[in-house]
Amino acid sequence: MIMNRQPISILYLEKPMRYGRYVRYTELLRRSRRENLVFCQHYPVVTMGVQTQASSLLLSAEDFARNAVDIVPVKRGGDATAHEPGQIVIYPHIDLRSRKIPLSDFVKAMLDITSESLDSVFGLKLRPDAKAPGLYTDAGEKVVSSGLEIRSGFSSSGVAVNYSNELQTFSFIHPCGYPGLRMQSVLQLTGQAEKKHDPETDAKKKEFCRIWAERFIQSFSLYS
């Protein structure tokens, strides 16, 4: 469904989608320079950024298949990360070139807006790490992953927030290439993990997405 009326098209996809389908979709957007903002979730997949090391994958290709986990090389920066149902994945497809948006401002805004929105809706205060893009608890647990793909001045990929996902797919890799990096989810941190299917939990998820979209659009004046 399309969330309310917004300056640019905003899609909130409630059912998980295969990552390969997203790749095909984003290529269509890139060719047409059609901008939008997508909130979605994926079936279990490990995406391998351009800096992925072989040691980051802890299973063989056969074992990934046995666990029903897709493996997809991608052109974004960074090492391997995981997506799975319950995670909030945010994809901004924006023509940075025509809008004259500096890449550094765009990258910083995505994490700042994510941090502010999580604090506003859930009271979570997470911190960035200059050496490892994302947002972390004070104990060093990672909750938010980020990675952009910019080609021809057009953005894809984006931000992934561990919301209600069980984090199992992350156990098959060294997340972002860091052995021992512990992943956390919003519902675990707020003591709501047992309520992942409650209507209130779903409502808070949508509120987070709404606030994120509003702040993102305002930050870059995406009104046309």
UniProtKB/TrEMBL annotation:
Q: Which Gene3D superfamilies match?
A: Bira Bifunctional Protein, Domain 2
Q: Which domain of life is it from?
A: Bacteria
Q: Which Pfam families match?
A: LplA-B_cat (PF21948)
Q: Which residues does the UniProt site feature Lowers pKa of active site Cys point to?
A: K142
UniProt entry keywords in alphabetical sequence: Acyltransferase, Ligase, Transferase
* Biological process according to GO: protein lipoylation
Q: Which Gene Ontology molecular function entries are recorded, alphabetically?
A: ligase activity; lipoyl(octanoyl) transferase activity
BPL/LPL catalytic domain mapped to chain residues: 31-220
Q: Where is the active site?
A: C176
* Reactions this protein catalyses: octanoyl-[ACP] + L-lysyl-[protein] = N(6)-octanoyl-L-lysyl-[protein] + holo-[ACP] + H(+)
Residues the entry annotates as binding substrate: R76, G77, G78, D79, A80, T81, A82, H83, S145, S146, G147, G158, V159, A160
Q: Which organism is it from?
A: Leptonema illini DSM 21528
Q: What does this protein do?
A: Catalyzes the transfer of endogenously produced octanoic acid from octanoyl-acyl-carrier-protein onto the lipoyl domains of lipoate-dependent enzymes. Lipoyl-ACP can also act as a substrate although octanoyl-ACP is likely to be the physiological substrate.
Enzyme Commission number(s) of this protein: 2.3.1.181
Q: Which family does it belong to?
A: Belongs to the LipB family.
UniProt cross-references to NCBIfam families, sorted A to Z: lipB (TIGR00214)
Protein name from the UniProt record: Octanoyltransferase
Enumerate the transmembrane spans. Answer: none
- Do the record's keywords include Transcription? no
Pathway where it operates: Protein modification; protein lipoylation via endogenous pathway; protein N(6)-(lipoyl)lysine from octanoyl-[acyl-carrier-protein]: step 1/2
